[in-house]
Amino acid sequence: MTERKKVVLPTLFRKAREGKPITWLTCYDYPTAYLQEQAGIDMILVGDSLGMTMLGYDSTLPVTMDDMIRHTQAVRRGAPTAFLIGDMPYMSYQASTEDAVRNAGRFMAEASTDAVKLEGGEEMAERIEGIVRAGIPAIGHLGLTPQSVSSLGGFRLQGKGALQAKKIIDDAKALEKAGAFAILLELVPDRVCQVITERAENCLIMSLGSGPHAHGQLLIYHDMFGLYPKFTPKMAKVFGNAGEVILNGLKQYNTEVTDGTFPATENYFGMKDEDYEELLTLLD
Ligand code: KIV
């Protein structure tokens, strides 16, 4: 395990003040959380993207609170000091502030998260306010918000024109006023991200495919390592092809079992001659 102290809100704001970019990744399971903790990643998001990356759905919409809690608990066990964020799944907060507070509370009580994230602009400010009033740190999510992908017209850049950009900038202010300590900007033009970062007073602006002018960067873990078979978005950088490494290993296993190369003597345990003789007698 790492020696580092627990990453807490003041740690993140200190980094931002010192101009040090904050690192943030998605994660959904214990072994990956363990590696991210060793790598010193500041923040971990258990995203409802797990519906696609881990459960094989075509969207994030079928993911439930129980799915999220189970995966978030596993991640916390692997990454005890990272700043851990639970992503509120579809319909866990949209219908009422009461739902939002209750489900945000589940993340904190059952999965030891440090904060929760929810999608949406000004229309979600009341939910953020309710969650923050309940003592739970909240992160907003603007731009390409996957839970509304149908009304956004697909996975595409948001805020391209001036009017749409102004709407995102206004939404960011509304979320900050409501008490969000951070806002994730997903797939908006770099200049829009820069304006929002420059105008933020007490709020960390994080970028996912929105350029470098933010307090930190987020990537989807599966996109970084070639682990999502359906597509790799343009905004992702592939840092290594783990998918290819694993596939080659699986093919080799298949061949070795088929041709008898595996298991070799070092892969199993024998039995002493006298024990075996005694066993044969017992069987007689
Ligand atoms: O669910 C998720 O991983 C997310 C990212 C797309 C930011 O919300």
Can I get a quick summary?
This protein has 284 residues and is α/β, with parallel strands linked by helices. The chain has helices spanning 9-17, 30-38, 50-53, 65-78, 97-111, 125-133, 149-152, 162-178, 190-199, 221-224, 242-259, 273-283; strands spanning 22-26, 43-46, 83-87, 115-119, 138-143, 182-186, 204-208, 216-219.
What does this protein look like?
The structure is a single chain. The chain has an 8-stranded parallel β-barrel, surrounded by 6 helices. It has 284 residues and is an alpha/beta fold. Helix 6 runs parallel beside helix 8. The chain has 2 domains: 232 residues, TIM Barrel, CATH 3.20.20.60; 38 residues, no CATH class. Helices cover 44% and strands 14% of the residues. It is built from 12 helices and 8 strands. The site of 3-methyl-2-oxobutanoic acid has 13 residues, from strand 6.
Number of helices: 12
**CATH level-4 homologous superfamily of the largest domain:** Phosphoenolpyruvate-binding domains
Gap from first CA to last CA: 52 Å
The helix fraction, in percent, is 40-55%
Tell me, what's the shape? Answer: elongated
Question: How many strand units?
Answer: 8
What is the typical, i.e. mean, pLDDT?
97
User: Order of helices and strands, N to C?
Assistant: HEHEHHEHEHEHHEHEEHHH
Low-confidence stretches: none
Strand order, largest beta sheet: 1-2-3-4-5-6-7-8
The overall number of domains is 2
Report on the biggest sheet.
8 strands, parallel, barrel
Small molecules in complex: 3-methyl-2-oxobutanoic acid
